[in-house]
Amino acid sequence: MTAASVNGITIEYDIHGDDSGEPLLLVMGLGGQLISWPIEFVDRLVAAGFRVVRFDNRDIGMSTKIDAPPPTVRQVILATMSKRFAKATYRIEDMADDAAGLLTHLGIDKAHIVGVSMGGMISQSLTIRHPAQVASLTSIMSNTGDRRNGTISAKVLRKGPKLLSRDPSKAFENSVNMVELISGPHFDRQATEAEVRLAASRNDDAAGTGRQTMAIAASPDRTKLLGAVTAPTLVIHGLVDPLVKPSGGMATARAVPGARLMMFPDMGHDLPKPRWDEIIEAIVDNSRRASIAPTSVAVSS
Question: What is the per-residue DSSP string for 209-227?
């Protein structure tokens, strides 16, 4: 792993695959570190012919933490209910500019972009703001920010706040239980516990998750701007996603001309391992609609 100075901050990243592979940028969701992309999933993408870049979004993992107080649970809930309560230090657009800056730092002119959840929002914004850098777009379990589609289920609104306690003694248990709450029927407790432990060993400062949540809440609706996207676009969503309801994926696919929508009945707000082969095949198929020449990747910080 190494770090890049971009957009006035430092972004931690790693790279997998040969120089001959087509660049593919993985963009993680809310509170997730780059290791939240399972290495087995990354290896399958590499085997499919990609040179894969993972990174920690700002305010999480080993990337720069923004100097601002984290919101309270009450502030987060109010911001989720209405944009007028969303007082954010930065927005999704700033995080998209981080991703664009990382590609530039690495000498990548154009890459395939794959984002999950908040990472899907960042990927959409990256495609809107920096279209020349995007060969293809895959938006997974995300939404357009229109606040009518892809909303949070009543179950998560009821149970989720109880798992946001800042008591350090409950951090591990709450993190695992939160993943279980939003996952589908293929939830793997052992794998989740291992990921939570690894994330804590890299960096256990979780305050950025709240600021990222406010960034989502404060960001504008992307629906109209997505109508101008020309990059081949794939939208993937789970039919039992309780954090971003399936309507979020449907609305995203409607917004982007020619987008392909792929929905799984056994997928929640997660990447179920039994569906990896189909997901990766779909990403490959989408990328083939916009094949690009391999780009050498610098590794200097």
Answer: HHHHHHHHHHSPP-HHHHT
Residues 238-271: tens digit of each pLDDT: 999 999 999 999 999 999 999 999 999 999 999 9
Domain spans, the chain: 2-288
Phi-psi group of 75: left, alpha or beta (phi > 0 → left; psi -120 to 50 → alpha; rest → beta) = alpha
**What digits encode the pLDDT tens for the residues 100-110?**
999 999 999 99
State the burial class of residue 265 (Cβ atoms within 10 Å of its Cβ: 0-12, 13-18, 19+). exposed
Query: Angle at CA 135, nearest 5°, toward 249 and 143?
Result: 15
Domain range 2-288, its CATH number among 3.60.21.10, 3.40.50.620, 3.40.50.1820, 1.10.760.10: 3.40.50.1820
- pLDDT at 298 (0 to 100): 41
